[in-house]
Write a structure and sequence with these properties.
It is a single chain. This protein has 438 residues and is α/β, with parallel strands linked by helices. It folds into two domains: 118 residues, Nuclear Transport Factor 2, Chain: A (Roll), CATH 3.10.450; 229 residues, Alpha/Beta hydrolase fold, catalytic domain (Rossmann fold), CATH 3.40.50. Helix content is 35%, strand content 24%. It contains 14 helices and 14 strands. The protein has an eight-stranded mixed β-sheet, with helices on both faces. The chain is globular. The termini are far apart.
């Protein structure tokens, strides 16, 4: 079992790991390439550790950059898109776009956040996104807008059905980690699929870029799900009420993963919501899920050596630190646990999503996939036991679906996400029918 599967917080399933340390590394990587782009080689060379400075001199760095420019043309943009722990180091992938083509780079960082390695990543042929067969573009239109809150402006898309009045509106709420408006994971775009599928059936939607993707620097200090999710979800609901042709009494929240976990809380603060969809929503604490995920990966590896067992045991000891429910003299709000501030863990550990859901008067649809290795049937069973028999609740288990709500033949790993598979048409039809039901 590779060390990288330990501390697998699979709820944070986007390509960028969500932690304060990683955000700082991303910023450093982007700043480094910005200096190269501006041909400020002396300033860029300062980012290297002492050893790399001797191996790759400032003059050599300049020559390397010039050679790349000769081959690929003028540099246009750079974005850190992925990080991975490699022993005592961190490898950050930076996506580079040039006038004549793309080139990704790998930067190795040490614990002092100094660059210890600079490599050109081999070309990778990523599978392209595939539009769902159920998306009929003749039946809907899309409009680009901004979702605005104090100090923030997030790109958003309003998708509305054509030639229909008084239609419902769905607000999509992301899972954990930075994410674009489509909730892109690898070659898959669940929110884009759902928006197209719903619109083809007469249901509008709003999807927006998650704040943690655009305003990453704001998350270098203690924060909670309020800043990460709730404030923007509330703003999106307010925006939904202003959509021309929409029925203001038929606004629904579709929460995926963390978004589903928080959907009951969102419903308590936005009384105008008609209902919530809890898609692959944890019913337990994050800590329990992370431990379950790591045990799953351990069993999948089939490596039962003593060293590997110890590695798993050590990881679980570390994961258990996230169970905190209050701060203290030794645990400060900005103490980092599993890459997140202690304030975040205290806040989310004091939230009981199942208990809140029990109090809701709005309609609730709970759905779970059987091939989801990130949130399991254990969570679905807890939801079903707690609220499954309430008149305002519908529960549905989809044995073939994974965490991205697509049909799969097995649970597998995150490698599944690199293959484009649309959100299940059956799920789209089921949820659409539920939303439009009287």
């Amino acid at each position: 079992m590779k060390k990288s599967i330990l501390f697998l917080v699979a709820l944070f399933f986007t390509t960028t790991a969500f932690s304060q340390n990683v955000i700082q590394l991303f910023n450093s990587a982007n700043d480094f390439f910005k200096l190269l782009q501006e041909e400020k080689f002396t300033e860029a060379h300062v980012y290297f550790d002492a050893n790399l400075k001797t191996k790759l001199t400032e003059e050599s760095l300049k020559k390397l950059w010039t050679d790349i420019g000769t081959k690929l043309g003028k540099a246009e943009s750079f974005d850190a898109i992925q990080s991975k722990a490699q022993g005592e180091f961190f490898a950050v992938t930076v996506e580079g776009k040039f006038a004549n083509g793309d080139q990704n780079f790998l930067l190795g960082f040490n614990k002092e956040q100094k660059i210890v390695g600079l490599f050109l990543a081999p070309a990778k042929s990523a599978a392209a996104y595939v539009k769902p067969i159920y998306a009929d573009t003749n039946l809907y239109k899309e409009k680009s807008v901004y979702l605005t809150t104090p100090g923030h402006q997030l790109a958003a898309i309003i998708t509305t059905p054509k030639n229909i009045k008084n239609f419902p509106v769905v607000v999509f709420v992301h899972g954990s980690g930075p994410s674009d408006m489509d909730e892109t994971v690898g070659s898959n775009k669940p929110f884009k699929d759902l928006a197209a599928g719903f619109a083809s059936k007469g249901i509008a939607s709003i999807r927006y870029v998650k704040r943690t993707l655009i305003y990453a620097n704001e998350f270098n200090k203690p924060f909670t799900v309020k800043e990460e999710v709730l404030d923007d979800a509330t703003a999106a609901i307010a925006l939904a009420k202003t959509v021309e042709g929409a029925n203001p009494k038929a606004i629904y929240v579709f929460g995926h993963s963390l978004g589903g976990m928080l959907a009951p809380k969102i419903a308590t603060t936005s009384a105008e919501i008609a209902g919530v969809v809890l898609a692959a929503a944890p019913a337990r604490r994050f800590t329990d899920l992370i431990i379950e995920q790591n045990n799953y990966m351990f069993n999948l590896s089939k490596d039962t050596t003593a060293a590997n067992k110890k590695q798993l045991a050590d990881a679980i000891l570390e994961i258990n630190k996230s169970k905190i429910s209050q701060l203290g003299t030794t645990v400060k709000p900005d103490s980092i646990i599993l890459g997140l501030p202690a304030k975040y863990w205290v806040d989310i550990n004091n939230y009981n999503q199942v208990a809140v859901a029990k109090t809701l008067k709005q309609r609730i649809y709970v759905l779970q996939g059987g091939n989801d290795f990130q949130v399991s049937k254990s969570d679905f069973d807890l939801w079903n036991t707690a609220i499954g028999k309430k008149k305002n609740v519908t529960v549905k288990y989809y044995p073939e679906l994974n965490h991205l709500l697509s049909i799969q033949t097995e649970k597998g790993t995150t490698a599944q996400y690199q293959i484009p598979v649309s959100v299940s048409e059956t799920l789209v039809n089921d949820v659409a029918t539920w939303i439009k039901a009287k």
